[in-house]
Amino acid sequence: MGIKLSKHFVERWKERVGTRVPSDQEFDVLLRNSTRLQKPAKAYSPRGYPRHKLGIYLLPEPTEPTVVVKTDPWKGRAVTLITRGTVDEGEE
User: pTM score, two decimals?
Assistant: First the structure.
């Protein structure tokens, strides 16, 4: 897949997951073994402006806490992540 981890993603991983941040290669393996929740797609606004719908993936167990990541395949980046804590706090 060749997805790189953005600075924002790395910061959120440290803050929300609390384990060692995976390397780009390790993240590729996680992403290949994940469950896709939303396929990335190009869309257009009513005025015809292009929009990108991010890919959303549920990482495989045993990631603890459960981690959902958002990726932008057009920029080749893992953009952010969501955990149970962020949902409970009303973030993202």
Answer: 0.81
First to last CA, the chain: 25
Domain count, the chain: 1
What does the radius of gyration of the chain's CA atoms come to, in whole angstroms? Answer: 14
Burial class (CB in 10 A: 0-12, 13-18, 19+), 2: exposed
Whether 61 and 78 have beta carbons less than 8 Å apart is answered as no
Domain range spanning residue 9?
4-88
3-state secondary structure of 83: strand
For the chain, what is the mean pLDDT?
88
Q: What residue type is assigned to position 88 of the chain? A: D
CA–CA distance, 3 with 18 (Å, rounded to integer) = 21
Instruction: Tell me the pLDDT tens digit for each residue of 30-74.
Output: 999 999 999 999 999 999 999 989 999 999 876 667 899 999 999
